[in-house]
Description:
Elements (H helix, E strand, L loop, with lengths): L2 E7 L4 H19 L7 E7 L5 E2 L2 E2 H7 L1
Parallel strand pairs: 1-2
Antiparallel strand pairs: 3-4
Amino acid sequence: MPYINLQITKGASREQKAQIVQEFTETLGKVLGKKPEHTHIVIQEIDDENWGYSGMLTDDYKKLS
């Protein structure tokens, strides 16, 4: 039973998350022969202030862009 725990910063739409689930499931089927009905994917959305990147919090980093 494959289990994927994907952590991303908040902001993905429902449609984008559905596409991620579909494509990850298809990839596990193609590459490893895993059945879709046995594949579990959890998407955790993390607030920008709780994610660090390049030595600073992501919300501060995005202000520089």
